[in-house]
Amino acid sequence: MSAGGTIIGFDYGTRRTGVAVGQRLTGTARPLTTLDMPNGHPDWTAIDRLIQDWAPTGAVVGRPTRMDGSVTPLTSVAEAFAADLGRRYDLPVDLIDERLTSREAETELRQQRVAGNRGRIRKQDVDQTAAAVLLRDWLAQPPLADTDRSA
């Protein structure tokens, strides 16, 4: 992927998909939204709007695996989503290990709540925050590793 620009991140799920945006230049990412997955399928109309609004130079999709690194039933579904995303929008798409991103997202959100910066934590909040966590993790990796992460 190019050295600069906006990157969009997806924490893919069959019920909901968290979305985050980030900047390669600053290495920052923030939660954006959570998309419902009608009948377990991507809401391409909503994704079309996000791609149009944010004009990303690339995308990152979380690749679900078990704690030992082995694949899950959702692994191939997330990989197929990443491939579809790349083809549909002519974007480079990288996959990144998403183990523990939801747990890290829940911890971040609880800390914000304890600090008085937010109210109740909903599942949608966790999904989009998990997308921001995996996108930050990806942004923190050395650029040379990009070739090993492509979908």
From TrEMBL:
Keywords: Cytoplasm, Hydrolase, Nuclease, Ribosome biogenesis. It is an enzyme of class 3 (hydrolase). InterPro entries: RNaseH-like_sf (IPR012337), YqgF (IPR005227), YqgF/RNaseH-like_dom (IPR006641), YqgF/RNaseH-like_dom_sf (IPR037027). Its main location: cytoplasm. Its EC number is 3.1.-.-. It comes from the Bacteria. GO terms for cellular component: cytosol. It is found in: Cytoplasm. Belongs to the YqgF HJR family. This is Putative pre-16S rRNA nuclease.
